[in-house]
Amino acid sequence: MRFYFSPAGTIFIKGKGVMDMPWSMKDYPASLKNLEKPVRKKAIDIANAMIDEGYEEGRAIPIATSKAKEWAENASTDEIDDFLTHDDETERDADPSSGSGPELMNKAEHVIKHKKGWAVKAEGAKRVSEIKDTKKEAIERAKEIAAHKGTEVIVHLADGSVQRKIKTGS
């Protein structure tokens, strides 16, 4: 069991047998405290997604932090501003129909066209999990997620029709 202190001083307990709550910009691990706001928010988004995919928080936090820093280095100012001005997507809905959580663990990952590139989205999810610049990058990420979950990848053409299905072997 681990204890986390939010910037507001709230104590959170995470661990086996304890209901895990997603992190938000108000309540997050202390290791994210000194990150700049866009990096912290991105790290929280990534860590929450990794936890949803079954990663342990001890692995998710450092990976998410590293990926968020990498994202911030490569993102344009407009992209960062856009990310910060959207609703706080880290404040996730506790409603089980919100499109994330254990019910999606046995669902296929879809690669679909998105206005900002190509997106990876679990079947039945309301939100995409990631957006990549190229279809190839999106397929590779979808394969990683699907292999972890033991599901398949369904690749779509830009018009939405199914191009192919990829078995992940898990």
Brief summary:
This protein is of the alpha+beta class. The chain has helices spanning 37-52, 57-74, 77-85, 135-149; strands at 2-5, 11-14, 109-114, 117-122, 130-132, 153-156, 162-166.
Report the mean per-residue pLDDT as an integer.
78
Query: Gyration radius, to the nearest Å?
Result: 16 Å
The tally of helices reads 4
Percentage of residues in strands:
15-25%
Termini separation: 29 Å
Trace the largest sheet across and list its strands.
5-4-3-6-7
Helix content: 25-40%
Give the H and E element order.
EEHHHEEEHEE
> What is the overall shape?
globular
Structural class: alpha+beta
Number of strands: 7
InterPro entries: DUF2188 (IPR018691)
Protein name: DUF2188 domain-containing protein
Pfam families: DUF2188
How would you describe the overall organization of this protein?
The chain has 170 residues and is an alpha+beta fold. The chain folds into 2 domains: 2-85, no CATH class; 100-166, no CATH class. The chain is 34% helix and 19% strand. The chain has 4 helices and 7 strands; from the N terminus they run E-E-H-H-H-E-E-E-H-E-E. The strands form 2 sheets. It has a 5-stranded mixed β-sheet, covered by helices on one side. Strand 4 (117-122) and strand 5 form a beta hairpin. Helix 1 (37-52) packs across helix 2. The longest helix is centred in the middle third of the chain and has 18 residues, at 57-74. The radius of gyration is 16 Å and the shape is globular. The relative contact order is 0.10.
